[in-house]
Amino acid sequence: MGYGGGIFLPFRDQTYQMETYGGGRYLLDTKNAELGGDRNGLVIDFNYAYKPSCVYNPRWVCTLSPLENRLPVSIRAGELVYTD
Asked: How far apart are CA 54 and CA 6, in angstroms?
């Protein structure tokens, strides 16, 4: 299998403290996120935000979001913390 191309965007928003994984979440346009865009910009659909694999198994290592991808707002879309 080859790399499908696209954009990998690790990010952390203000929901990381209680509502999502503390290390952040990911967006990947090869997950059918239909990000789209043109020369002037990129459309980002946070509904496709998902938790990294390390949330489900401690044997996996997660890429943390870089400082420039840490958002000062809460994004209440995509995967959130599961509670019983």
From this structure: 22
Cα Rg, the chain, nearest whole Å:
13
Segment 23-44, tens digit of pLDDT? 899 987 664 555 566 677 777 8
| Cα–Cα distances in angstroms (integers) from residue 59 to residues 54, 55, 82, in the given order | 7, 10, 20
pTM across the whole model: 0.77
Q: What pLDDT, on the 0 to 100 scale, is given for residue 15? A: 93
Tell me, what amino acid is at 73? V
Copy the structure tokens of residue 33.
Answer: 């996120």
* CA proximity to 24, closest of 57, 62, 76, 72: 62
DSSP calls for 13-79: -GGGGTTS-TT-EEEEGGGTT---EETTEE---GGG-B--GGGT-TTS-PPPPPGGGB-SS----S-
